[in-house]
Amino acid sequence: MSHRAASWLAWSLAGLSVVMFAAVIALSALVPSAQAPSDRATVNTVSEALVFLSFLAFPLVGALIASRRPYNPIGWLLLVDGILWMLLNAFESYGTYGVAQPGSLPFPAAIAAQNNWLWVPAVGLLGTYLLLLSSFSQFANLTTSVSYARLVSPQSTYQMVGYWRWWTETKNASHSK
User: Fold this and answer.
1) Where are the domains positioned within the chain?
2) Distance of CA 78 to the CA centre of its chain
């Protein structure tokens, strides 16, 4: 694949992720209006949107890396993982709105049921991403010290920075001995 085609593909997939993000926000905003009005529903919708915004970093950073370095697998993994998270949330919002407004959308339960398995490749790609960043022996030492589930959990992504710092400090300390 040429550099230009790879760049076009990467940014097209990132654009698709942004469109899915906008659709999720729109459907999430419509769900409280379909239910009984309450302040709690509005707060939950806004907080979920802000948390979901952090997942948009995966496809955007992935597109940036893949468009600049098309042969780097990290960019493509981030891009695909971001698309999977956007798709996962789009299916969930579609199903929630379809159930809240019966007859408004076709097959809401069947679409939402895809979330039962779609999280597996999304979390699995994060694990692959971690394996690509380090050799297996270094990763094995990391898993004995830190719970793997916490590292790949999308809800605790911010903790990855702290673990990464700890791991690099530990690695640097072992190399200096």
Assistant:
1) 3-119, 134-177
2) 8
